[in-house]
Design goal:
Elements (H helix, E strand, L loop, with lengths): L2 H13 L4 H12 L3 H21 L3 H21 L5 H23 L4 H23 L1 H10 L2 H4 L6 E2 L3 E3 L2 E7 L7 H14 L7 E5 L6 E6 L25 E6 L4 E4 L14 E4 L6 H13 L4 E6 L16 E3 L3 H23 L33 E6 L2 H8 L5 H7 L4 E7 L9 H5 L3 E4 L7 H4 L2 H5 L14 E5 L12 E3 L7 H14 L5 H11 L1 H4 L11 H9 L34 H17 L4 E3 H5 L2 H4 L3 H14 L2 E3 L5 E4 L7
Length: 664
């Protein structure tokens, strides 16, 4: 409390009424916060007296009351596990003493002298705790008396109004003008944690953006995240993607929330998300928390690329619009996302939306959001789109570390959020341009060397230290994202835990999303189909194949060979067949025009199979049909680019097949 505050309080007291009524009101007002312990002592005396009149000499009741006292004391100790050890012990002792006196008074003879002495002591101890908990001057005196700031090299800094909350102490600090800066406090955080005998993640500092020498020191003495809380289902089933996604809790119990779409009125930008964490850090559960929240919303569709063959996400596949594994499927998805961004942006602009909002999902019957000059247009609505690339290091290695840069820079204005998940968010995994285009991050335990790439410098300076967790604190994370107070960026949080028992609920959620969730709008579906064709339009047909399918298919296609005995010796060659060479390349005698026709047929086969991104190597796997060398094939692919049958991609040497039904 500053000197000005003290003087103001003194002035307010002097202005109060000085008559007997005023003094009485003042005293009662000041005494009210400290009355509950005394009222409890009085209630104990009255109840003990009544119990004595009813149960005096009843041995059975004495046994029952004794057992009840033990149970009550144990319950108090158990219920206090989330509080500090001193408060827990104090509460248990108080309950044990009170219940013991009540049992003795009810069955034997009340000892009012004992109650008077013991009750007074108990009530005063609670009053003293209350004084130190609520009186800023008392807490300030403890903090200053401990010499904490002197010990860590900040002797000239001043603590101001200290705010004490359950398991959190917030101390505003004013540093010496001209001699100390907020950087000095950031550098001293490890020493402060050492002085308080706490882990480094329990101490953080939030600089005042309007001052270079003021900020708030936050100390969390107990790890409230140590208790594992299981996932119990989505927070808002059937809600909008514009509502917060609740994916866990902070160390003070507040919900851990994430927003994806922009909110123009609230001044919040849309965001893309990086999910980072080493193996064993809980990144998988964190991803499941985010994805289940997304699938539970009514106005969003999800595209998912997962090189791990949906190891974690398989129960959720029925609720996902488009899911692919690594390789050609992911390449096609990247091309599709790049293509639908401008199409969606044009739709939003034509309907006079500055950014995607929940009204975009509805049929456009509002004349203020019409693409026609007069009256509502009635256009079908457009859901939000989430493009999720799991284990993205695989994709970045295959397509280049700048694969997502253009998408990330342009997608937010189109109602698209990009989510990139990988274990090591380091410069050798993705380019700095791509990293800078992912403004939000859910950072689990990482290698200490990767902290600077996973989290912004200012968050690390404020006390965030994911390298201290590594994989020893699964689920612990930091969240940096628009929409939350920046002082929370360095606050540890923990996501909900998924277990085998969660699978049934995940499958139920996916079934709901498949039946009642958003369906692709014509703009998004049409844009994807125009660039990758059947890779998108026939996405639902790409199921796991039966291992026996190949043998059955061969039998059906080769019916004319059913009567052949595979163990029978081949007949002798007829005259003229002795010198026929077997294994000759089919295309060896093709002229150039015929080879080009075969190449066109090969591209059509790729397209029919849903493989829309190819390279020279892929075509050369059919080289026996062409009878041409690699150089000829490479040149023909360049010609097909000029003809519009192929289009270049972000990765050199890889080309996207332009569907035959689309305009070049």
């Amino acid at each position: 409390m500053t000197g000005k505050d003290i003087e103001q309080r003194h002035e307010d007291q002097l202005k109060g009424s000085s008559d007997a009524g005023g003094v009485k009101a003042y005293l009662l007002h000041r005494a009210k916060p400290y009355l509950p312990p005394w009222l409890g002592v009085g209630a104990l005396g009255v109840s003990g007296t009544v119990g004595h009149l009813v149960w005096h000499g009843d041995a059975a009741m004495g046994i029952g009351l004794t057992l009840g006292s033990v149970v009550l004391t144990g319950s108090t100790w158990w219920a206090g596990k989330a509080t500090g050890p001193e408060r827990r012990l104090h509460s248990a002792i108080t309950v044990a003493a009170g219940s013991a006196w009540f049992t003795s008074a009810a069955v034997f003879t009340p000892s009012y002298n004992g109650l008077a002495v013991g009750g007074t002591v108990a009530a005063l101890t609670w009053n003293i705790r209350q004084i130190y908990r609520r009186d800023p001057d008392g807490v300030k005196a403890i903090a200053e008396g401990s010499g904490l700031l002197e010990k860590v090299g900040l002797a000239k800094a001043m603590m101001q109004r200290i705010k004490v909350e359950p398991n959190r102490v917030t101390a505003p600090i004013a540093l010496e003008a001209g001699e100390q800066t907020n950087d000095d406090v950031a550098k001293a955080l490890p020493r402060i944690a050492s002085a308080l005998d706490l882990p480094t993640t329990a101490v953080r500092y939030s600089p005042d953006p309007a001052s270079a020498r003021r900020g708030e020191l936050v100390v969390v003495p107990m790890d409230m995240l140590s208790e594992i809380i299981l996932w119990e289902g989505p927070a808002l089933p059937g809600g909008s993607i514009a509502d917060p996604l609740v994916i866990g809790r902070y160390d003070n119990g507040d919900p851990l929330q994430l927003w994806l779409p922009a909110d123009v009125e609230a001044g919040r930008n849309g965001t893309h998300v990086l999910i980072a964490g080493i193996s064993g850090s809980g990144k998988g559960d964190g991803a499941l928390n985010v994805l289940t929240e997304i699938l539970s919303r009514k106005d969003v569709i999800t595209w998912l690329s997962d090189p791990k063959a949906f190891q974690d996400f398989r129960p959720l596949l029925p609720g996902i619009d488009w899911a692919v594994e690594a390789g050609a499927g992911t390449e096609a998805m990247v091309e599709a996302v790049q293509a639908v961004i401008p199409a969606r942006t044009r739709w939003l602009g034509a309907h006079k939306y500055r950014a995607w909002e929940p009204r975009c999902f509805d049929t456009q019957n509002d004349p203020d959001h019409s693409c026609k000059a007069n009256g509502p247009c009635g256009c079908e609505g457009m859901p939000f789109l989430v493009a999720w690339f799991e284990e993205a290091a695989n994709t970045l290695r295959a397509l280049g570390d700048d694969t997502f840069t253009g998408i990330a820079q342009e997608a937010r204005s189109a109602g698209v959020s990009l989510i990139v998940s990988l274990q090591r968010a380091s410069h050798d995994q993705m380019s700095t341009s791509t990293r800078a285009s992912l403004p939000s991050v859910i950072c689990f335990g990482v290698d200490k060397r990767d902290e600077g790439f996973a989290l912004p410098d200012e968050v690390l300076d404020a006390g965030a230290h994911p390298g201290a967790w590594s994989n020893r604190r699964p689920g612990y994370c930091y969240l940096v994202t628009p929409g939350i107070d920046e002082t929370l960026y360095a606050s540890p949080a923990r996501t909900w835990r998924f277990t085998w028992d969660s699978i049934s609920m995940m499958e139920t959620l996916a079934a709901w999303a498949g039946r009642h969730g958003a369906k692709p709008d014509p703009i998004t579906a049409g844009g994807a189909a125009a660039v990758v064709g059947k890779a998108y339009t026939e996405r639902a047909q790409h199921k796991e194949e039966n291992p026996d399918d190949e043998e059955q298919t061969v039998s059906r296609l080769d019916d004319e060979d059913l009567d052949i005995d595979p163990n029978e010796e081949l007949p002798d060659p007829l005259p003229g067949e002795e010198n026929v060479p077997f294994g000759q390349l089919q295309g060896r005698d093709l002229n150039a025009d015929q080879a080009r026709d075969v190449l066109d047929a090969i591209l059509t086969e790729f397209e029919e199979a849903g493989t829309m991104v190819i390279g020279t190597k892929d075509v050369m796997e059919h080289g026996d049909r062409l009878g041409r060398q690699r150089g000829w094939v490479s040149g023909e692919l360049q010609r097909l680019i000029q003809d519009g049958r192929l289009a270049i991609t972000a990765k050199p040497g890889r080309y996207r097949i332009v569907p035959a039904m689309a305009d070049a």
